[in-house]
Amino acid sequence: MNLIVFTIKNYKMGFSIDYLEKIAENDKIIYPVPLMPDFIKGFLNFQGRIITAFDIASFYGIDDTDARNYLLISKKCQNLGYLVKNIEGFATVDKENLEDASKLDLDPEKAKYIKYMAKRDAGSPIYVINIEALEDFVKNPKNWGVIYEI
User: Fold this and answer.
1) Are 27 and 104 in contact (CB under 8 A)?
2) Residue 72 pairs with which residues in a beta bridge?
């Protein structure tokens, strides 16, 4: 499995590059929208497209308040961009190094958005995001109240 790997606080997270259209520096103005959950930072204009800015750190409740330096644009959900602080790079992980996330001690509501934990010989493990489930969640605001009181 080939992953784009990024850092959120002390965690290494990533998802399959099959879901990645583009990596862009986040030098755009994000226009906030009132009454949105904290993980929806607002909207921005990227090359003439209106992109929803989704903050992965806020979604997982990780306090990482530094600027979001990069925007990872989704290939499947083309009007969605993930804000991340640092990109570590790309990694290839063999299937035998993937541990099913259901075995991890995670908050059950958010665990369904983590597919695997990828073990590496050197460095911290990578939490592999279940990007399909996450995008289905984001596309349906009716679900937002399940995790967040809005």
Assistant:
1) no
2) 23, 82
The 3-state secondary structure of the chain reads CEEEEEEECCEEEEEEHHHEEEEEECCCCCECCCCCCCCEEEEEEECCEEEEEEEHHHHCCCCCCCCCCEEEEECCCCCEEEEECEEEEEEECCHHHEEEHHHCCCCHHHHCCEEEEECCCCCCCEEEECHHHHHHHHHCHHHHHHHCCC
What tens digit of pLDDT does each residue of 14-68 get?
A: 999 999 999 988 888 899 988 888 889 999 998 899 999 999 888 888 877 666 7
Residues 6+ apart with CB under 8 A from 68: 26, 41, 53, 55, 83, 84, 85
pTM: 0.84
Read off the pLDDT of residues 88-138 as tens digits, 9 standing for 90 and up: 999 999 888 898 877 777 777 777 889 998 987 777 889 999 999 888 888
